[in-house]
Structures are given as structure tokens and as C-alpha cells.
Amino acid sequence: MISKRIVRKCLLFPAMLFLLPRTTSAATQGSECSAQDLLAVLKTDDPAYTDAMELAQILRNHNFTVKCVLQSKMNGFFEGQKGAALYRTNRGDFEALFLPKTKTFAVQPIETRENSRYIYSFAGSPHATGGPLDCARPTYFSQHANQLFETGDEPLAASLEKALASPQANDKSFHEKAG
Known about the structure:
Strand content: 25-35%
Low-confidence stretches: 1-7, 12-28, 171-179
Shape: globular
Strand order of the largest sheet: 2-3-4-9-8
Largest sheet: 5 strands, antiparallel
Structural class: alpha+beta
Order of helices and strands: EHHEEEEEEEEHHH
Radius of gyration: 16 Å
Mean pLDDT: 81
């Protein structure tokens, strides 16, 4: 039964954003952030902030409009995880989980169904310490080097894979120019 397990919900519900503390990095966010989103903007002192902003720049260079980069409830979901961020873009919302740059995600999502819910656990490395993900709808995962992406939108997952598979996304000089 689900109630006996540690379960994380798939998406951060916007109504809960007002519970998060005010942040100092609102100036670095897009002008399309709502007032509610601005309460949850990723802080400059967040361990994943630099990685999150680098990813935002890569996405912008691939014609994504990054509206906001927000705090995530997916922090600490995997062993050794550096942090996580919730992105709001013109193509939809997604979570990005970050490992240190010297580590790589090599996980395989395992989907099971329970009472019309989609339950995801993970095999591989690093070990998932956050328990299963309990989702109302199918969820799509994509991984690239030290980043794992989670979204409920299949076309968005495909767009992320395409953007991150490009030679520019893997080029160190590109990161230096973009960052």
C-alpha cells in the first residue's frame, strides 16, 4: 500500500509556492515570472545555482524561453545529488536534478500502476534515496551527463534531449561563453 512508503509527488503545486521563503535572485529571472513564482526563485547561494543557470543558458540558445528557475522539492532525491531546480519555459515545466559535474546519471525509471496512479522507482546509479515518485499521469525522464530531467510532457522531454544532445551543449568553450 502506498501510504506505508515514502512517496514524493511529481510536480510542485503552484498553490504551495507561497510557503517558500523570499529569495535574492529575482533579478536574474525572466520578466515572465509571476508574483507567486518570484517567491520561490532559486537562490544564488543554492548549491545547484550555477548548474541551473548554465542549463538555462543552453536552453535559451536552443530557442527555449526560460521564464523562471525555481526552488525544487526534488533536492536530495538521489544519493550524492548536488541540487535541483524547477524550470518554467515556453514549452512547459520540468524538474532538473543535478549531480556534481564529475558524476553521471545512469538510472532506469521503473513504472508501476497502482489505483490509477503512476509510481516510479529507479534502478541504477546513483541510488534513489527519496522513495518512489507518485504521479497522477505518465512522467517522462531524460538524462544527460550529470543532469536528470522529469516532466509530464512527452514533447518537452524530447525537446530537452535534442537540445542537450547538440555539440554546443557538450562543448566546454560553449559553457564558458554562455555562463
